[in-house]
Amino acid sequence: MDAARQDEIHYCAVHPERDTELRCNRCDRYMCVDCARRTSVGYTCRECVRGHENRFYQGTLLDYALVAAVSAVGGGLTVFLTALVGGFLILGFILAPAIGGTAAQVALQLTGRRRGRQSGYVSVGALLIGGLAAGYLLTGGIGLFTLLYLALACSAAFARFKMSI
Ligand SMILES: [Zn+2]
Ligand SMILES: [Zn+2]
Question: What is the distance in A from the centroid of ligand 2 to the CA of 29?
């Protein structure tokens, strides 16, 4: 244990005259009791509470890029795997939404669940693009069932994004 560090006196980041041992559970800065806001996961500073509310709906460009990248891969996988199971249509109907939902789940994890309002649409668009690209690369065209599978994957992904709000 670092005894020296424990003995240090810390001051509120907003009120430098107040010493405190409370720390924000998001940004780690010290804060006094006036600055602390109780949340379901502990104490958070005002800035973070406010920032969290904003971020909740905005999502950064990087978040959208991540969502798009993961979804495009998901779309490609959907087409690839459903093509593999070929005639086993039932398997495709199970696989496609599972992949779409998983892609959305992974995207949500990667972006720390900071989805923007558009995340669902970005995901669906990227799923389609990834899926269509994979379809053309693999078979030189898109079959009716491939489209159907992609639609299933899209709706599963979209539902996942909506559910998490
Ligand atoms: Zn904070
Ligand atoms: Zn304070």
Answer: 11
